[in-house]
Write a structure and sequence with these properties.
four-stranded antiparallel beta sheet; 4 helices; metal ion binding; metal-binding; 158 residues; Alpha-Beta Plaits; membrane; cadmium; two-stranded antiparallel sheet; alpha+beta
């Protein structure tokens, strides 16, 4: 049987598990959230149509009040972002906001964003070096506020 197995591997044209040459990487189902500025229904329609025809896209949702595009499917997030930027000509970026309940100190400088939709703040969990105060523990916050100008009971020795 060893010779027959060898010959069958040489002439195997199927996409089965024994074919080592034609293995294709399968993409996982992903939800991609993108921030795109939309002013009117025409902008909304253009943004939606830019990704509807992509291979692997199963669902597209547009929320013009939040300036948010949600794409669900077997897609690469970078390709979706690039396609939205090229097809619409608009500035687009990955959704930079998270619900404010997730962040320990949502109103710390760097986390709070006036342009964020209601109930959302900047995602400080991705870049902890830039936004140390938003991720500070209660002990660190006590020491920082002890010498703060905003605190009326702060130390005035300095």
């Amino acid at each position: 049987m060893g010779a027959l197995d060898h010959i069958s591997e040489l002439f195997d044209f199927s996409l089965g598990s024994s074919s080592k040459k034609l293995k294709k990487k399968l993409k996982q189902l992903q939800t991609v959230e993108i921030k795109v500025k939309m002013d009117c229904e025409g902008c909304e329609r253009r943004v939606k149509k830019s990704v509807e025809g992509m291979k692997g896209v199963t669902q597209v949702e547009v929320d013009p009040k939040k300036h948010k595009l949600t794409v669900i499917g077997y897609v690469d997030p970078k390709k979706v972002l690039h396609r939205v930027q090229n097809r619409t000509g608009k500035k687009a970026e990955f959704w930079p906001y998270i619900p404010y309940e997730v962040v320990a100190h949502p109103y710390a400088p760097g986390a709070y964003d006036k342009k964020a939709p209601p109930g959302y703040v900047r995602n400080v969990l991705q870049d902890p070096e830039v936004f140390k105060l938003a991720r500070a523990s209660s002990l660190e916050e006590k020491y920082a506020s002890a010498f703060s100008d905003d605190n009326p009971n702060a130390c005035s020795v300095m």
